[in-house]
């Protein structure tokens, strides 16, 4: 009969599967990567690995654990490595190999195995879903998401691929929605931090602005939002051209026609917000993205103020410390 410690050891072992593969290119070289899904308790993540990486792990473990008689599909010397049937058989063999490794505690805890499965770096992905710590520290309070709220949406609707931004209340993930394989930027906010800092009003103001942005081509828009016990999720447009700040650092200066083009589109975006009595208040190169066609897209509306007419003024000290001196200087010259 297994001991309690043995049962606990077994329950902590991960489950793995290799459900699919992708073909990729790197400097004109074509290769196949295999998607390895790993789950431990309530946490789940995935990693892409090439056959050569499986082979390297196999050779390391084979030398250290000869009695295990580990096997992986042999290298193919002749024939088409991209033949669908060949790849299917190879994927099945790699699946059996990795399943056997994680079923054996000594193998599973080998440093090379943990590195291969990213077992010590999974917190970037678990931040995007519910875990036991979240449940133990639950605020158990809902925040009214208004018309943007989707009661049927949940974190498991998405594959969270990587962190693309961080802020005071959470992170922004590049995520792929499973049912249609569309890419989104999903902003994940910690309710506990929002409530402790009494920032509900600002978060909802940001949501309100995002909802209105869907109607303008130069403003990032909110598709819908949802929440769990401890987190808020904003499903946003994914803009893949990078920050204007990055391009400015790389190129140092822009030709005048290009600068005028960006300024005109920024003016259009800000003018639209002003027509809705919204003041942006955080304009900087880091908050200006470029889309795949080179158009600007304004993002990050956390400092927006609603209900401001043309004759109104504000006195709030807000913005980014690095550009405060420019704002103060402009006021002193006015």
UniProtKB/TrEMBL annotation:
SMART domains: PX (SM00312), S_TKc (SM00220). Keywords: ATP-binding, Kinase, Nucleotide-binding, Phosphoprotein, Serine/threonine-protein kinase, Transferase. Residues 1-21, 127-151 are annotated as: Disordered. Residues 12-124 form the PX domain. It holds the Pfam family Pkinase. It comes from the Eukaryota. The keyword Nucleotide-binding applies. Residues 137-147 have a biased composition (Polar residues). ATP binds at residue 187. Coiled coil: none annotated. Residues 158-334 form the Protein kinase domain. One of its GO terms (molecular function) is protein serine/threonine kinase activity. The keyword Repressor does not apply. PANTHER family: RIBOSOMAL PROTEIN S6 KINASE. Belongs to the protein kinase superfamily. AGC Ser/Thr protein kinase family. This is Serum/glucocorticoid regulated kinase family member 3. It comes from Lates calcarifer.
């Amino acid at each position: 009969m297994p001991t309690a410690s043995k049962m606990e050891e077994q329950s902590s072992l991960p489950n793995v599967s290799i459900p699919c593969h992708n073909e990729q290119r790197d400097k004109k070289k074509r290769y196949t990567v295999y998607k390895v899904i790993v789950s431990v308790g309530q946490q789940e993540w995935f990693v892409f690995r090439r056959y050569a990486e499986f082979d390297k792990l196999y050779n390391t473990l084979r030398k250290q654990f000869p009695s295990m008689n580990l096997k992986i599909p042999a290298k193919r010397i002749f024939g088409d490595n991209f033949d669908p049937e060949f790849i299917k058989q190879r994927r099945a063999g790699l699946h059996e190999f990795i399943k056997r490794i994680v079923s054996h505690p000594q193998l599973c805890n080998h440093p090379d195995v943990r590195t291969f499965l990213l077992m010590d770096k999974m917190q970037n992905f678990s931040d995007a879903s519910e875990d036991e710590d979240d449940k133990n520290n639950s605020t158990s309070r809902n925040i009214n998401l208004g018309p943007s709220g989707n009661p049927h949406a949940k974190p498991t609707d998405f594959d969270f691929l990587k962190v693309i931004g961080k802020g005071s209340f959470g992170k922004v993930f590049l995520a792929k929605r499973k049912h249609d394989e569309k890419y989104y930027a999903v902003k994940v906010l910690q309710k506990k931090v929002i409530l402790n800092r009494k920032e509900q009003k600002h978060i909802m103001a940001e949501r309100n602005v995002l909802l209105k942005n869907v109607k303008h081509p130069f403003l990032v828009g909110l598709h819908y939002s949802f929440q769990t016990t401890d987190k808020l999720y904003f499903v946003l447009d994914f803009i893949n051209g990078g920050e204007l700040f990055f391009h400015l650092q790389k190129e140092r200066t822009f030709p005048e026609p290009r600068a005028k083009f960006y300024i005109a589109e920024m003016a259009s975006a800000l003018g639209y917000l002003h027509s809705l009595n919204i003041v942006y208040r955080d304009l900087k190169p880091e908050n200006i993205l470029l889309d795949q066609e080179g158009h600007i897209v304004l993002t990050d509306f956390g400092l927006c103020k609603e209900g401001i007419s043309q004759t109104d003024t504000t006195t709030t000290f807000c913005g980014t410390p690095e550009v405060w001196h420019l704002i103060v200087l402009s006021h002193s010259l006015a």
